[in-house]
């Protein structure tokens, strides 16, 4: 847990939603609400001023969508992590948010403790996907075909890449993967890039969703 509170910003066009979410920060000492915005354009202005650690981003908003705002934030301030927090679970929205740079995708009915945990994970560089988001991602155009072949066979991963993917599912960052496998950080990063390419995933969160769907290994949990 960081020594200073994780600084969080809420972006949602409904004031009641912002008010409801803000109550979480009154009971979680390690999380601090530092700002709010009611649309994507306002989110950029507030992010520029306050530099939060994590942004909770609604997706359907006037003036600038959550996905557009996420991409702009991640381009300008790559150290800021964005969690998509929405009522919708359509595949296009999930994929669009992840491709824009959101590290996590959660639905607004998420429990307060689970949202707080996801904020901490995002701050540490780890993804959290709602089960509904995983289901949306793996539907129509997931590359897998048929009978329960392993991920390595279906996607032509090498044994080492399959091992790295398992560590990604565990939530390890590139430096942590490098340390676990006793390889350089650049080697770990290269493995992760190859895995994303072979899975047709736009980022780690989507790769994890595909790995979970295809039962990469018995050691992978459902979370």
Describe this entry's structure for a reader.
It is a single chain. The protein has 223 residues and is an alpha/beta fold. It folds into two domains: 6-132, Response regulator (Rossmann fold), CATH 3.40.50; 142-213, Winged helix-like DNA-binding domain superfamily/Winged helix DNA-binding domain (Arc Repressor Mutant, subunit A, Orthogonal Bundle). The protein contains twelve helices and five strands. It has helices at residues 15-22, 24-27, 40-50, 66-76, 91-100, 112-123, 131-138, 151-155, 159-170, 174-181, 185-199, 204-213, and strands at 6-11, 31-37, 54-57, 81-86, 104-107. The chain has a five-stranded parallel β-sheet with strand order 2-1-3-4-5, sandwiched between helices. It is globular and about 50 Å long. The protein starts with 5 loop residues before the first strand and ends in a 10-residue tail after the last helix.
What's the short version?
The protein is α/β, with parallel strands linked by helices and 223 residues long. The chain has helices spanning 15-22, 24-27, 40-50, 66-76, 91-100, 112-123, 131-138, 151-155, 159-170, 174-181, 185-199, 204-213, and strands at 6-11, 31-37, 54-57, 81-86, 104-107. The protein has twelve helices and five strands.
By CATH, the architecture of the largest domain is named: 3-Layer(aba) Sandwich
Provide mean pLDDT, rounded: 85
User: What is the count of β-strands?
Assistant: 5
Helical amount among residues, as a percent range? 40-55%
Tally of separate helices: 12
Question: If you compute it from the alpha carbons, what radius of gyration comes out, rounded to the nearest whole angstrom?
Answer: 17 Å
- Subunit organisation of the chains: single chain
Return the domain count.
2
Series of H and E elements:
EHHEHEHEHEHHHHHHH
Distance between the termini: 20 Å
Enter the CATH topology name of the largest domain. Answer: Rossmann fold
The biggest sheet amounts to: 5 strands, parallel
Tell me the strand order in the biggest sheet. 2-1-3-4-5
Helices and strands: which structural class? alpha/beta
């Amino acid at each position: 847990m960081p020594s200073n509170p994780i600084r969080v910003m809420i972006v949602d066009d409904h004031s009641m939603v912002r008010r409801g979410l803000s109550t979480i920060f009154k009971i979680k000492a390690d999380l601090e609400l530092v700002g709010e915005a009611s649309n994507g354009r306002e989110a950029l202005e507030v992010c520029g001023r306050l530099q939060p650690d994590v942004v909770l981003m609604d997706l359907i908003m006037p003036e600038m969508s959550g996905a557009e705002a996420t991409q702009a934030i991640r381009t300008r301030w790559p150290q800021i992590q964005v969690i998509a927090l929405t009522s919708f679970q359509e595949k296009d929205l999930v994929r669009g948010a992840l491709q824009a740079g959101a590290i996590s995708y959660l639905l607004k009915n998420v429990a307060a403790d689970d949202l707080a945990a996801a904020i901490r994970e995002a701050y540490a560089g780890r993804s959290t996907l709602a089960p509904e988001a995983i289901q949306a991602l793996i539907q129509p155009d997931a590359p897998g075909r048929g009978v329960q072949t392993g991920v390595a066979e279906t996607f032509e991963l090498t044994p080492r890449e399959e091992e790295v993917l398992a560590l990604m599912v565990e939530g390890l960052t590139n430096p942590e993967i490098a340390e676990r496998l006793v390889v350089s950080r650049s080697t770990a990063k290269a493995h992760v890039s190859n895995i994303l390419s072979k899975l047709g995933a736009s980022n780690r969160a989507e790769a994890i969703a595909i790995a979970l769907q295809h039962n990469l290994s018995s050691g992978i949990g459902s979370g």
